[in-house]
Automatic annotation (TrEMBL):
SUPFAM superfamilies assigned to the protein according to its UniProt record, in alphabetical order: P-loop containing nucleoside triphosphate hydrolases
A GO BP entry: urea catabolic process
Gene Ontology MF, one: nickel cation binding
Lineage: unclassified sequences, metagenomes, ecological metagenomes
Protein's name according to its UniProt entry: Urease accessory protein UreG
UniProt record similarity statement: Belongs to the SIMIBI class G3E GTPase family. UreG subfamily.
Name of one Pfam family that matches: cobW
Domain CobW/HypB/UreG nucleotide-binding: 10-180
UniProt feature coiled coil, ranges: none
Amino acid sequence: MTSPNGPLRVGIGGPVGSGKTALMDALCKSMRDRYSLAAITNDIYTREDSEFLTRSGALPPERIAGVETGGCPHTAIREDASINLAAIADMNAAFPDLDLVLIESGGDNLAATFSPELADITIYVIDVSAGDKIPRKGGPGITRSDLLVINKIDLAPHVGASLEVMERDSKKMRGARPFLFTNLKAGAGTAEVVTFIEKSGGLTPIDVD
């Protein structure tokens, strides 16, 4: 059910390799039968992530857009979000019933944040393989995102990372803001992220009767 304010916009950020595209893929496949949705990816000089989503069958190709940001990818989601806002407008024109747009950021550091003009909800993805110190390093993605996703928990014993330490530090850095442990490759945690988006965004599923 489409909101009079337009589709809900969910920004997904995080370091390279943390699982942003995997989360985009999992969310599309989990939510596409209940909502009218689209996906927009940001890459610096290619459209690799959007092409991955197309190949994986996450959504029909016409519902996936790749934005080439050039230069600094953080600018396209923060200081000047016009290129992404234009992509959303194009999607909304093509699909007037759009309920949800997932926006994957380019970029690779803990300082990347989404402009409030671009994203209604922000999800930040980190992964266990980078070490259990990441949550306590802080940065806007860690401390201010609406949801922190700690991915690749299956790798913890292989890299000497403690999930207990990551949980403790995430609570300390985020206060009351929620976080989730996931293994997106195996599908673990996807349902919890979907529930968070639905509740936080007030989404109403499509009536399939």
